[in-house]
Amino acid sequence: MSSGGLELPPGDNGHEGGPADAPGGAPGGAPGGVSGGVSGGVSGGAPTGVPAGAVSLAPTAAGGVRAGAELDWGADAWSEVRTRAQRAGRAYIWLNLIEQRLRAVVGAVLRPIYEPVHGGDDWVVAAAGPAGQEWVQRAVAVREVSRRKGYLLDPADDNVLSFLTLPQLRELIVQHWPCFEPYFDDRREIELALDELEVTRNVVSRNRALSRAVLEQAERASARLLEVLGGGAGSPAADRLPIDAVEDLVGDRYADVISVHPDRVRLQRQLPAEDLFGGARRLDAIGIGLNLLVQNFSGRRLVRLTEAGCRVRLLFLNPASSAVKRRERELGLRKGELSRSVEMNILHVRRVRAGLRDPSRFEIHVFDETPRFTAYLVEGETSGIAVVQSYLRRARGMEAPVLVLRGGGTRGPARDAEHGLFPTYREEFESIWEDSRPVS
């Protein structure tokens, strides 16, 4: 069996069609064994007395392999199966979107050409031409069977076009490319993307293992193809974690949380600081020392970001406050160690602000309250992302779990504004900012 890496025990070739070697028969002394079984017999390597074409029901000898033991799935096998199912599910959603979009495009372009002459569903048969007679007739037959058995639950699917597969839709586009050329620039790009998806389609349709590399390739090809076909898959202006098909369909299940990481190290593998902060139009950050920004995004890059029009507001914990001393005791740090680190970060961003033509766009404040979380609220023109961590008593910021949230941009509405977490942390930031003091 391919799923789970399990394999049934092979038959004993030495007994294939051969006579029984020793008496024994069926359990309870029933003569003749069990007829009509598997022709190869099941052998444990010892004489069984089972006639050719029969399967022994007698227990195996002590120390032998118990029948059916290899069919059990352990924790590792179940984990592998779940991983395969999750990847196949993501791939299926992309393939479903591509197939629906292609049907709509093919229908919009070819129907006005063939339907006035051939009418009804015959226009699909005519468009397929002699080269596609075999597969289009198969689609017609499947549609008729679905009609008789009541499989068509939606009247919108009661047409031959809905029964064409992805390769057949591709063939229609290729055959009639002069009809599609006014709408699309590059035929080769469409064909290459569909070729890449065909590999994924074969794997998913046959429930074979889909590797992460093939899944990621299929997602890139699908997003590119939807963009070419005008399917609304364009990425946001800031190009940070573009919304994908899966998030659009099931994202409301998790409010605006789009990913969770056990610590900041794993976050930065997927979302480097350049991808997080680059291209931002507004950057608000609150925390003790804001190391994710200060230590991973250079001062020159911050200057360029601000000069390009980004508004920056940084809110540090006051290094002279009693809250810093309590945090030092929680983490087991030497007295003054954390406060000096925060002071160095504040000095760094002050130097950045001093190098700006318009320092008013780069504000630095400190607050004296007990720090409850660190948050980086980054917004582009049409999209926003927030990285949020809660402070744990014995864990440094690098070791605390991380939430990544999807938010609205400076000119677009926030996603899930009513039930999302992004507006909650935005409101909390604004509240603390009002009570904070500016750094001169």
Quick overview of this protein structure:
This protein is of the alpha+beta class and 440 residues long.
* Helix content, binned percent: 40-55%
Compute the separation of the termini in Å.
70 Å
The helix count comes to 15
Q: Order of strands across the widest beta sheet?
A: 1-7-6-5-2-3-4-8
Radius of gyration: 32 Å
**Main sheet specs:** 8 strands, mixed
Would you write up a description of this structure?
By secondary structure, the protein is of the alpha+beta class. The protein starts with 74 loop residues before the first helix and ends with a strand. The chain contains 15 helices and 8 strands. The chain has an 8-stranded mixed beta sheet, with helices on both faces. α1 (75-118) packs parallel to α4, α6 packs across α7 (212-228) and α12 crosses α14 (337-354).
Describe the secondary-structure layout.
Layout: H1 75-118, H2 122-128, H3 133-149, H4 166-175, H5 177-180, H6 187-205, H7 212-228, H8 245-250, E1 257-261, H9 264-270, H10 273-277, E2 282-287, H11 291-294, H12 299-307, E3 311-317, H13 322-331, H14 337-354, E4 362-367, E5 373-379, E6 383-390, E7 402-408, H15 422-435, E8 437-438
Parallel strand pairs: 2-3, 3-4
Antiparallel strand pairs: 1-7, 2-5, 4-8, 5-6, 6-7
Helix pairs in contact: 1-2, 1-4, 1-6, 1-7, 4-6, 6-7, 12-14
